[in-house]
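ZP: hey, is the (2R)-2,3-dihydroxypropanoic acid complex queued? I don't see it on the tracker
AM: it wasn't, my bad. submitting now with these inputs:
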Amino acid sequence: MPRAILTRRFPPALVEQLTAAGIDITRHNGDEPMPRAGRLEFVCGADAIVTTINDRVDDGLLDAAGDSLKLVANFGVGYDNIDLDACRARGVLVSNTPGVLTDATADLAWTLILMAARRAVEGERMVRGGEWRGWAPTQLVGVDVTGATLGVVGAGRIGCAVARRAAGFHMTVLYAHPRNQPELDRIGAQHVDIDQLVAEADIISLHVPMRPETHHLISRERIAQMKRTAILINTARGPVVDEAALVDALRERRIFAAGLDVYENEPRLAPGLVELHNVALLPHLGSATEGTRTKMAEMVAANVIAALSGKPPLNPVTA
Ligand code: DGY
């Protein structure tokens, strides 16, 4: 019987479909990552390992799994937790879950845009804290989203979905991407370089994958180029932003606000971030809807079943 190792508790569809396909499952059934000690023994003899962003797949893990390993099936679209060269060197395939989480993640980027622009975190805190004394003309005044300029950094599936939603807010859309994106050109978005985008956009939303070249793409220097009224949204990967520089800019009110779903050293936050009022902080919820997580589970199951029956996975990572 082929054996799949699940490093986490996953939506029931994953276990149901793997079991129905006759795959033997060993799982670490919790929401926390597996403790470091015991992690290597746990994967020993696996035919497939189902991983998440919190599992580093490196030489050590691959060696511990051994020669039986055919597939690392990542539960997520991003795969920066996986050493692709190390997998390739051992003939281990890698799969991910593209497409199914596009809308959920774009919706969450918009949640953060509206929270940050309209000071929703401060308002919520005020009401819950019993500090609200009634409506006042100058109370918690935010910035307009309707009619503002949205800058989308990275125009892949999720970036495009975020840009499409801007039509409802009558926004001007700028995008920075290595090449023209016809879908965005058709809706009148302007293809610009990242420096023009950070200088001109009112709302900057990040949608680039984590790669060596995107590390601190939003650097201290680029943050310094943003408008004083700018809002920075990150639902991509934490290390794309120099988080310490962002904390300084928010503290000194050099930009208006930020909305973050991802962090440089998740789940740890940069010193000073939680004390700030002008930032909305979410715990990496981009794809966290019932429907989306079930589709991701089904996609992972299909990839594992294919690979363990000698076929290519449906969503191979080839980069
Ligand atoms: C994704 O799908 O990449 C999410 O960020 C979780 O890894």
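AM: back. The mean pLDDT is 97.
ZP: great, adding it to the tracker
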